[in-house]
């Protein structure tokens, strides 16, 4: 699936407003009330994003619960029927066929109709928030396929969660609502036209992603921090509040509608799709001596191992499993294997536990256990993963054999690792938590038996879950808050943070986080937070793209068409110059395309050919899918016309200076000697340019010499730093003008 | 106190690294290991900041608890002795004198020794984080006075809290630790020299402020968000994690040492100075219909009223109470009045409640109540404010009469309002919470009686507290998280957020937040988050300072001394030009001072006068207190020497372009006509420049024309925008080159 994500058509987003004359005129015309209305619209949109995201989460949850109940009840009855009379292979086949069919539906939807809906969508949203546009990632169709796909894969019993995809869903909702139109439905509501540009749309998408996290984990603050940690560069107070608002509304909506569906209207105790349950007060506190134990658990590199295996698996998939039908077959194979392995594990397990009324299992399988007992292995495998996590956190000490937990950890680890990256919509959060909870509980049991201290296994399950998840996704701040909010208890803040930090530090020693690995495998050029530490010796001169393609302020139409059609210099922004190559502005490919489409030409005689003056609205209507240059027909006569770019170019692009020469003539010879000894060619260093790009969200930066002549437009092509610097292949994106 | 905060000597901080040759050489020399060591030092420093901040909080807490216990026990015994025999006026006098003396000590310390230690310090830290340096705000002496002052004022029974000052204390600790030296102690440990510049120091100070919040409220995430909401502009992932780490360590240290002092080592249930206590599970949930009620409570404008009254009081103080002895006298007066009013309220109250063992009051005053009963008014007044807040949150319904609560609200409101701004170290968080909790509880009682629905008064007390605090300080995201963490329960997230948002929106209609009011009254030029909405018609031309003072790259020492001594153009940065006025760099006042001090002169004969080459270390040693120009003696001979600024200037300052003319000659006449119709002089608009300043934390921005000639250096003087735009007096700071 990931093979086709880096396909042509992806590009970067432009978070720098093009302040051309049209824009400035509009802004200057607008009254204070106008701006206030815009602000109110923003809040309204964020509220709407929250409500819709919450509703989607609610829909997924209810459908999954209902259908999964039918499925498990049916299989349970079947197993019970055949346990005594023999012939459990029929039950196995029933189970496998049920899983098989659901996964097939989900996989066909994804592989054939919208490959970008595969996986959790978090890498894609992370890219989007960081300015890389992956085609079709925020379309309505993607959302529909995603929702159906995730329902199918969770019901299909794969080792997946429905939480990750919520983040993608929230982002799609946000992108749709904020633009007031849908390409899939071909419907334009003619509202929110002001927000039809990359800057504004990105803000709403971050709110949507946060709302998704919030609905998934009942973690509104965690959602905000997720958006910030993954996406933000410039922190804006008002924006953060709106994101927080969307998150709050989202979790509240989910909570409210779930309470209705549970016939318990107004009971707001289900804030998220996953609920870790309330940790009992006697388990709450941890002792000081436990902290090193927690840190040691964080250092267990199972997360890194997971990433390592998945990395090679993904490379294998990119090479050999790139045809949709192969992808569907692989998904079905995984579904069948998952069912068979689960069944085998349950079948051969002899971990029988008494069935008490207090912690009633939802689908207790008696199998070969005595009456009044149930098979403990079945509580982990024969249930939705969310429920299994809760059981591992909260079941009484002694509910699980160490052997059961060990076997479960190993099998589920490999199943989850195999599953992530399949052509199905599915998240990796819950499987990670489940694996971690299993080995964490195992650690707790061991500790209790070894040191003969009482260690609550549920607590260690939580820590293990955090360690595993942290080792896989390598988030710290937002993940700490998400987990704390999901447990509903702030007491575990410090241990969870320490575990996540350890997991990150230890894991980063081996490999990047799972999402970063997938982003890299998709060949997405992704700009990191800071320039590499030792990059001060690099200057703009060394990373800028040259030679630069410039346009004159009054340019021949033919030249523009040729420049745009030239695939070797497939730039997206062009500096506009006046003779002799003095920079006077920057114009984007998309703007030129709109100008060509509307034929804003001037004949040499000076008369305009267009009937009306082009307005900002024309650019907004074309946003975000500008036609390719090939689809625009320009006749031979028109090629001879001129285009006046003055109104449309951004007359104040950000620039950096490159001092080219030091030809001083006014100083005495003595001093001149001094200068020549000291004065090297000074250029802007890479970290400085990097900061400018990152902080302002730039896509283009013009390098000028000291006479304001455009030397080069630094449309950086991906630059791989020397390995000797111990900087792993770093790809500079946004500089990449693709 | 605030009158002398805007005194000369304050200035802005420079968050843009001066990338001169010395700096680049150092960076380029540094190996990857060097950078890794730096990174580890940063983490170490953050850990140390956390530990020290936690210890300070612990010290304050233990001292206050112990001494307050003696005080209240003594007064209680005294009152009990005199209740029956009459002569309670002696108790009143004892109470008043005790308060009086403590407050006198605290006030003398603050007013005479370190006026900047007055108040909570939050406005000052907010200024610091936003780039405005207020003199002596992060010195060790300030910390000592602050800690002693806050202990005195809390024990002195003023309507203050010890939480706000923790933020200031954390910031001072951070500034001290990260620099590896102290000016107050005249001690230089010769470590962490790399961090001796504004950028790095600011990062650590934000960690310190977060650690302070974290220790004060047991809210590590809230601390991080506080730092971000109040100070950050550019979000940096690694920095945020370090801040989070410091916060976690801080709350953990406090928790651990408090558990030792409570003889309960390892019981980590006291994460902060204030502990809201555990909300009982039956009170936890709220109903849907309560949400509008909560929002309505948020709209009660008592917070705005508080700000309004305090605003006028502060203006009065600036005018008439600016002499230290007057300030001390005012503080003592307030202490006496507080004691008298409290006593009177308790004396005349007839709200007697049965003394049950479950919710044992710490200092129950029987007074005129029957045996086995206690005076309910005394639980609010006769206690530390933290304890009173807890009582209001958690005491059984019916513990307080509505009349008691009403009277308490009114008196405490005015007392707190009068107290904030006195020359004592004290915070406004706890008084606000207390006022809010009182009227919130009152609302709860009324609702229960009016609608005959059961409304838990403790819940309404919490909401009221949030509304009042939000109405006063106008924070939303961070305050929500702080309150949620302090209650230890995420269920109230949504209502608290809605209340704070309402309080902010309603309150902002009347007035700014308390901290912003005080920042404004201190005449600190403070740059807001975004340029005013309707400022697109303003260009750099209109806000830049002119004429510009430039220096030549090789400049006469005399000229430099004259420029620096000129008080009318008291700039802090100067563009460096080569003839004819071509920009080649930017040099700071502080750098010039160091150069002059070390006499880095060149005689016209070309020989250097200094023995050694100046290094970055010389600049770091002088940081942050560069001597004034007046203290540097330059002889008449030396004035004739030259200074070569090449090595020391920043050769790549950020610039914006101002297009000055459109003298095109290469186009046909027809087109020229066209241009003249369309092409206006294009300049960078204010919002664009604003974004550059805010995102990059700039202090200077050079405006150049299209030939790279320095037109003006926009060292903006404070600019008051037209009222017609409905933009309230906005002062552009950082642009202010003071």
UniProtKB/TrEMBL annotation, chains A, B:
It is a multi-pass membrane protein. One of its GO terms (molecular function) is chloride:proton antiporter activity. Signal peptide: none annotated. InterPro entries: CBS_dom_sf (IPR046342), CIC-7 (IPR002249), Cl-channel/antiporter (IPR051280), Cl-channel_core (IPR014743), ClC (IPR001807). Keywords: CBS domain, Membrane, Repeat, Transmembrane, Transmembrane helix. The keyword Repeat applies. The chain crosses the membrane at residues 40-64, 85-113, 204-227, 239-260, 291-313, 325-348, 410-439, 490-510. It holds the Pfam family Voltage_CLC. This is Chloride channel 7. It comes from Oryzias sinensis (Chinese medaka).
């Amino acid at each position: 699936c990931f093979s086709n994500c880096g396909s042509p058509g992806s590009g970067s987003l432009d978070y720098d407003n093009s302040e051309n004359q049209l824009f400035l005129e509009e802004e200057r015309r607008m009254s204070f009330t106008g701006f206030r209305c815009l602000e109110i619209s923003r809040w309204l949109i964020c509220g709407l994003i929250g409500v819709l995201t919450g509703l989607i989460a609610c829909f997924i949850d209810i459908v999954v619960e209902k259908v999964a109940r039918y499925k498990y009840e049916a299989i349970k009855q079947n197993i019970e029927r055949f346990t005594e009379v023999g012939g459990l292979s029929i039950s196995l086949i029933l189970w496998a066929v049920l899983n098989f069919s659901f996964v097939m539906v989900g996989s066909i939807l994804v592989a054939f109709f919208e490959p970008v809906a595969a996986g959790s969508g978090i890498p894609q949203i992370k890219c989007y928030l960081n300015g890389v546009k992956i085609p079709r990632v925020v379309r309505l169709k993607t959302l529909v396929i995603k929702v159906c796909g995730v329902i199918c894969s969770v019901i299909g019993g794969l080792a997946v969660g429905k939480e990750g995809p919520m983040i993608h869903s929230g982002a799609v909702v946000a992108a749709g609502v904020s633009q007031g139109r849908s390409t899939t439905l071909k419907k334009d509501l003619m509202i929110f036209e002001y927000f039809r540009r990359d800057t504004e749309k990105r803000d709403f998408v971050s709110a949507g992603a946060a709302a998704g996290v919030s609905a998934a984990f009942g973690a509104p603050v965690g959602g905000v921090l997720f958006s910030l940690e993954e996406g933000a560069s410039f922190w804006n107070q008002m924006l953060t509040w709106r994101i927080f608002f969307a998150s709050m509304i989202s979790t509240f909506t989910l909570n409210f509608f779930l309470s209705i569906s549970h016939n318990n209207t107004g009971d707001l105790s289900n804030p998220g799709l996953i609920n870790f349950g309330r940790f009992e007060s006697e388990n709450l506190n941890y002792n000081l001596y436990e902290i090193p134990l927690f840190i040691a658990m964080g250092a267990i590199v199972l997360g890194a191992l997971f990433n390592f295996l998945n990395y090679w698996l993904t490379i294998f998939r990119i090479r050999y499993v790139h045809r949709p039908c192969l992808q569907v077959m692989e998904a079905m194979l995984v579904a069948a294997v998952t069912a068979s392995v689960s069944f085998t594990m349950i079948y051969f397990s002899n971990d029988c536990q008494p069935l008490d009324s207090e912690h009633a299992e939802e689908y207790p399988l008696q199998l070969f256990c005595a009456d009044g007992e149930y098979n403990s292995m079945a509580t982990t495998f024969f249930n939705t993963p969310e429920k299994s996590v809760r059981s591992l956190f909260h079941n009484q000490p002694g509910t699980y054999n160490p052997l059961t937990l060990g076997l479960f950890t190993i099998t589920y680890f490999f199943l989850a690792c195999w599953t992530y990256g399949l052509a199905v919509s599915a998240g990796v959060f819950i499987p990670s938590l489940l694996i971690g909870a299993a080995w964490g509980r195992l650690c707790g049991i061991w500790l209790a038996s070894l040191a003969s201290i009482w260690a609550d296994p549920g607590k260690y399950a939580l820590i293990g879950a955090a360690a595993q998840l942290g080792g896989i996704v390598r988030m710290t701040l937002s993940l700490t808050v998400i987990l704390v909010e999901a447990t509903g208890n702030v007491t575990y803040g410090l241990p969870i943070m320490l575990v996540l930090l350890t997991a990150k530090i230890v894991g980063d020693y081996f490999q990047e986080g799972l999402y970063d690995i997938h982003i890299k495998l998709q060949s997405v050029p992704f700009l990191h937070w800071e320039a590499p530490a030792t990059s001060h010796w690099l200057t703009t001169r060394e990373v800028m793209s040259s030679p630069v393609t410039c346009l004159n302020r009054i340019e021949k139409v033919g030249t523009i068409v040729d420049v745009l059609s030239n695939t070797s210099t497939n730039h997206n922004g062009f500096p506009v110059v006046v003779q002799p190559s003095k920079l006077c502005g920057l114009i984007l490919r998309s703007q030129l395309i709109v100008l060509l489409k509307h034929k804003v030409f001037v004949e040499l005689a000076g008369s305009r050919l267009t009937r009306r003056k082009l307005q900002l609205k024309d650019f907004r209507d074309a946003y975000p899918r500008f036609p390719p240059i090939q689809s625009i027909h320009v006749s031979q006569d028109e090629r001879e016309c001129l285009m006046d770019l003055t109104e449309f170019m951004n007359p104040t692009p950000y620039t950096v200076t490159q001092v080219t020469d030091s030809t001083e003539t006014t100083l005495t010879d003595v001093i001149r000697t001094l200068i020549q000894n000291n004065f090297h060619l000074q250029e802007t260093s890479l970290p400085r340019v990097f900061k400018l790009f990152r902080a302002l969200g730039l896509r283009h930066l013009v390098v000028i010499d000291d006479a304001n002549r455009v030397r080069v437009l630094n449309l950086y092509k991906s630059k791989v730093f020397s390995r000797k610097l111990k900087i792993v292949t770093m790809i500079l994106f946004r500089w990449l003008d693709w």
